[in-house]
Amino acid sequence: MTTALAEDDALWAAVADPTRRRVLDALLEHGEASTTTLAQGLPVTRQAVAKHLAVLNRVGLVTGRRRGREVRYAVRPERLDDAAEAMARVAAQWDRRLARIKRLAESAQADAGIDR
Amino acid sequence: MAADSVEREILIEASPQVVWGVITEPEQISRWFSDEADVEARAAADGTLTWRPGGRGGKKEVDAIVPIRVVEAEPFSRFSFRWNHPQGAEPDENNSALVEFTLIEEAGGTRLRVVESGIDAVTHDEEGKARYLEDHEGGWGKHLGELLEYVASKPPGTTR
Global pTM? Predict the structure, then answer.
């Protein structure tokens, strides 16, 4: 049996939080938005939105640029696609390899048992 | 763990000695990884993994030959290597991915854990990315919805 263990990964952690997923969704919808604009459409405070944006920014999923007095954020789709595609493929690939290793080792172990 | 790493594990009903043989012997590696393997389980050993057309790599028309450099080979407990660096280049964290196997003896068998990190190093260079993704079978899509579905499908309590 295989257990998913990528949970500590910063990227997974970043998108595993339901509020951050809503922030990402809102950003994808707006294209670009300030912390204040985002907070207006979400049931959380401006401070909370700022913290979530900082986490997303740290893992490279969003980028911010200064527009006058405020910072406008946008999703970095290439990073999202790259990350999602590469990670999911690599994870699925290792699951298949581990399953093959298990079959080979268990059959070798059984053969060794008979020889003894 | 770095942002660009994956960790997987499996419980195997076999001794660490048997599992070690499967993950390090070339004739065994070719039964679960590449179609051919030329590698020695010794620290600093350089080798190659080869995927043949029509083999596990899929529909490619030419052989895909991927360099591999063993980092650690501690019998029955740890085996790690770097791979996917450009042919002839010295592998480091900027041009290759690191794969680390850990074998833990448990009642009834061995827990085998694998961590692959530095995927960004391989996938951000366009040529490397194309080769890397092409070399790998797998039907995962590339959109947010699927990524989130994948995260949500993990067993309860393992996310975050």
Answer: 0.62
